[in-house]
Amino acid sequence: MKVQYFDDTDTLYIEFRTGDIAESKDLDENTILDVDAAGNVCAITFEHASRRTDIDRVQLEGIAA
Question: Which residues form the domain of 14?
């Protein structure tokens, strides 16, 4: 899993799995869900992240071995 924040565009990108994106679904005008051919969620993108999320407070819990 990878979390990236792009300050220049105020975009938060969370990648849950690597692989080919088969479809990008607009959940609303500022949120995009990427899925693979089997319908598995690969990533989600939040535009205007500083206004829509608590980007200043990132916390990681439950790391699996």
Answer: 2-52
Q: Residue 39 and residue 36: Cα distance in Å, rounded? A: 5
Angle, CA 42 vertex, CA 41 and CA 46 arms, to 5°: 95
Total number of domains in the chain: 1
Contact call for residues 52 and 32 (beta carbons, < 8 A):
no
- Reported as a pLDDT band with limits 50, 70 and 90, residue 56 is confident
CA distance 22 to 5: 23
65 belongs to a structural domain = no
Q: How far apart are CA 47 and CA 30, in angstroms?
A: 5
Report if residue 60 sits inside a domain: no
Q: Is the pTM for the entire model greater than 0.70?
A: yes
Picking from 13, 17, 4, 16, the residue whose alpha carbon sits closest to that of residue 32 is 13
